[in-house]
Amino acid sequence: MEEIVLGIGITALAGAFATVAGAAEDTESDIGSQGDPNSQVQLAPQMGYIHRIFNKAISGEPPAYGAWCAIGAGVAWALMRINFNPALAIILGSVIAVFVQGVYCTSGYLGRTASLAKFQQPVYIDIIKSLLSVTMAHAFVAIFCTVAMCHLMATALHHPFALPLLGLVWGIALGAAGSATGNPFYGKERQYQNQKFGAGVPISASGNIVRYAEAGQRSSLDNGWFTTKFAGPASGICFGLIVFLELWRTVLFEKTVAGWGAIIVGVILILIFTFIDRWIEVWGRKTYGPYTAAEEASS
Amino acid sequence: MSVKMEASAGKLSENTLMIYGIVVALVGTYLTYLNAVTGIAVFSFFGGIGAIAALWWGSDTIKHLCSYGLGTGVPSAGMVAFGAGAIAMIAGTKFGLASPIVTLVLAAIIGAVIGYCANNIINMNIPVMIFSLMKLSIVGALTMLGFAAMCTGTFMFNGLVIGGMTLSMEPAEAAAGGAQTFMVTVLPEFASSLIGGAALTVIFFLGAIALQHPFNACLGPNESQDRTLMLAIEVGFLSMFVVAVMSYAFLDIISATVGVVVSLIGWVYSYKQYIALSKRDAYAWLDAKPIIEVGGNE
Predict the structure, then answer these.
(1) Do B278 and A166 touch (CB under 8 A)?
(2) Mean pLDDT over residues B191-196, rounded?
(3) Range with the poorest average pLDDT among A282-291, B57-66, B225-234
(4) d(CA A209, CA A43)
(5) Are both A100 and A196 inside the same structural domain?
(6) Are residue A266 and residue A156 in the same domain, yes or no?
(7) Is the pLDDT confidence value at B2 over 50?
(8) Quick check: A114 and B222 CB within 8 A?
């Protein structure tokens, strides 16, 4: 019984870490403009829209965060092997991972922008100077929380995977959660505030991203300000729920039916979430969907 | 049938790059054998140099493969290279002193099979697909082998699953694994080795991200070969730095520090060169200046 109570406590703590990590990850990727919304940032100069948005071309968020968290976890693992204190090892691992991440950010921006010289997109070097520290700080929070969470799983919950592999798996999950949950707020909403609400992104508007702010010119920090309100917390809840429910079902039902209990509960959870998703989608279409009404009115 | 788009023609032909890449990667990996000959591990960093050479060549191969309209597939190409390379590398290390050569041959075979499946079964019909995937698999395998040799000081399978040449064999309970039971899995003290402790995962991802990044970051109409290749060297040294830090777990302090110093010197030099090349290629290099309007209807 005591074991299960400890397990639930660790589960809750890991879920809290994951929530913070998810929120920080999404804010970082929106300020740095990573993932699928970046294709529009990349396209804009080719359509004649020169902009001052960070263009962080590394790869999709899942592989990128898989790499950062694996680096953080791997270095932490190596330092713990030579008897570093786990807290210090995780911090040093995250610092090295963030260093790598920052260097990749600068080379991604410089490379992509320099290759767009044909379309007269200049390199705005102040973008790197002013935004790099912000994205690196958010990335540090995300990586540190993820690696700390993995360490909890490895030591307190006795997960069979080694720390670097846990870092990789949960890093990919973190990037996927941020990419799937948070990015629409940035890519479909913030970049296209000049389009009619709910219109999606028509082909003719491709590359015509919002480049001017309420006063002056839009910086990627403004995008971070916008997405922190909804996208960050939404990604945090998403990743936090993934981690919490995943550990919760394992801790509680691992011993039931010779290990099958946790798997059965997992399938049931997936079914419940499929039902909720479908219900929200139908409800959202009925309540906010503009298309049916507009077509009836015009015909 | 995909249409070939322009890939920047560079001074160095792809075959020249391939020869340099393979030779330096193999020589670098073999130089780590000096560790076993001399009994000190300071030669480990040569493995990292070999891995950088492989990445340097591979980033150019990715450019030629991905110029067939695979813009968003650039990161995936890095992943498939290392996925194929990981199999070849782990199997290849069983062959003792011949390991690097066997790894190369195995990777070529696996790459050819994957390329055949992609081209003839999935019908992607890209003319260079089979040969490119063969080359990318070799790049993946040699990069992992080089970094693994740098991290542990050896490229032999036993060293990679039991520990480096100077590793003391205490079971590391603190290091995540240890002999613990979770459901049915029991992990012996292999958990403190490069493969058993899954540190190879980090090398896998360091290499995969570094392999795809140069072309992915530099693609565009004004991509130039020397800048892309310099970025490949830069991310190679950056990956080598992380591997060097991790090698503190397997090597003695002096050997690991040599790796850290070499990688940092190489990284600083190549990063400065890369920034200079970006400055050369950029349309303008502006600091805190407004948007230049060139058209587009605001």
Answers:
(1) no
(2) 84
(3) A282-291
(4) 9
(5) yes
(6) no
(7) no
(8) yes
3-state secondary structure of B64: helix
Give the residue numbers spanning the domain of A97.
Answer: 2-253
Distance from CA of A107 to the nearest CA of B (A): 7
A288 and A236 fall within a common domain: no
- For residues A202 and A270, membership in a common domain is answered with no
* CA–CA separation, B108 and B114 (whole Å): 10
Based on its alpha-carbon atoms, the radius of gyration of chain A, rounded to whole angstroms, reads 21
Over range A97-105, report the average pLDDT: 96
Read off the DSSP letter of residue A36.
T
B138: in domain: yes
Residue of A nearest to B290 (CA): A217
Secondary structure (3-state) at B43: helix
- Residue B185's pLDDT is 44
Same structural domain for residues A283 and A150? no
Q: In a 3-state reduction of DSSP, which class is residue B182?
A: strand
Q: Pick from B192, B198, B242: which is nearest to A75 by CB?
A: B242
pLDDT value of residue B174 = 41
pLDDT digits (tens, 9 = 90+) for B262-292: 999 999 999 999 999 999 999 999 998 888 8
User: For residues B256-282, b (16+ Cβ closer than 10 Å) or e, as one string?
Assistant: bebbbebbeebbeebbebbbebbeebb
| Whether A238 and A277 share a structural domain | no
The answer to whether residues A42 and A195 touch, using CB atoms and an 8 Å cutoff, is: no
Please check the confidence at residue A127 and state whether its pLDDT lies above 60. yes
Question: For residues A81 and B167, is the Cβ–Cβ distance under 8 A?
Answer: no
Question: Do residue A155 and residue A186 come from a single domain?
Answer: yes
Same domain, A50 and A96: yes
* Cβ atoms B167, B132 nearer than 8 A: no
Q: Do the Cβ atoms of A83 and B248 come within 8 Å?
A: no
- Dist. CA A19–CA A182, nearest whole Å: 13
CB contact under 8 A, A78 and B184: no
Q: What is the pLDDT of residues B119-168, one digit of tens each?
A: 888 888 888 888 999 999 999 999 999 999 999 988 988 888 875 444 33
Average pLDDT on A187-199 reads 80
Q: Which residue has the tokens 């990679």?
A: B160
